[in-house]
Amino acid sequence: MPDADRRGAAPDVPPVEPHPPHRPVVGAVVVAGMAALLAVAFLGIPREHAPLPAIARRALLESLPRWHLTEPVNSVVYGSRAFDTFGETFLLIAAVVSVIVLTRTREARHGYIGEEVAAKEEREEIDPARSPDATQREARSAERGESEGRRPETPDATRLGTPGPEHAESMTVIVRTAMRAVAPILAVTGLYLVAWGYAPGGGFPAGAVMLGVILLLYAGFGYRRIGLVVRPAPLEVIELAGAAGIILLLLLGLFLAGSFTANWLPLAPPQTIRSGGTAQVFSVGELVEVGAGLTITVFALLGMRHDWAGDEGDG
């Protein structure tokens, strides 16, 4: 009898396959080649005295007289190339819809599966007090009560040195105070980006800033404090309202100015909120659509609970 069998070890243990050998020379050659390409690209960047490309020169020449915007990037994004921005905005809507579909929770089946509905009705007739709905409600209520009793509102009430993980809803008083000071400044900055048109991108970066404010409040205070605002139903309505406003704004250009995305609003003096005509309104609509869409996407991923498994009791 082999020694392994006498000691009680399992016989015929497959040997561990060795890892494939590393090739440091190949890696070094790839890294050196990439570094050379980056160096050539960096050296080829036009300097401040280099002549502007034709498209950049045209944007600079048309930005102020045609759109009354001192930021040529905004005049291109929301003005002369508004149709491209329109397409990119609705690509974001498609991405939001995809995330919602992938992260959706289990949905109630009303009448699609006859056996399931019939079995539910039969169980309710036999014992209405112990129907599946009643059982689920009791379980959810007990779970809520247990979690609420276990989780303090803030960690300030927890004694220092207490063992175990942190279960507080909010963060410490220092973090919460810092959030209260920073969040209004960031919110005003986001509104400034979209209102005055001085920053490249306008509504898109402003929407990202608004998402950052919401995430700061969520990280510092927990979902309870922002739960009234960050809910699927109102956010989806807000996002669709922003998208519908963009469509209406650009479609009116077709009837009032003869071209889709054409400017049909009077241009105010430069460096004012109403300068840019439809460009500024488009930027505001994108703020609404992008801010709501990114918020839906992030919190849909944070709240993802779908396990993609079979129904309960499938075995």
Q: Which class best fits the helix and strand makeup?
A: mainly alpha
Q: Treating each run of at least 4 consecutive H or I residues as one helix, how many helices?
A: 12
Distance between the termini: 42 Å
Binned strand content: under 5%
Radius of gyration: 29 Å
What would the principal axes of the Cα set say about the shape? extended
Instruction: Please estimate the helix content.
Output: 55-70%
What is the number of strand segments? Answer: 0
The mean pLDDT is 78
Strand/helix succession: HHHHHHHHHHHH
> Mind describing the biggest β-sheet?
none
| Poorly predicted sequence stretches spanning 5 or more consecutive residues | 109-113, 306-315
Report on the structure:
It contains 12 helices and no strands. The chain has 315 residues and is an all-alpha fold. α5 (82-102) runs parallel beside α12 and α8 (173-196) runs antiparallel to α9 (203-221). The longest helix has 25 residues, at 232-256.
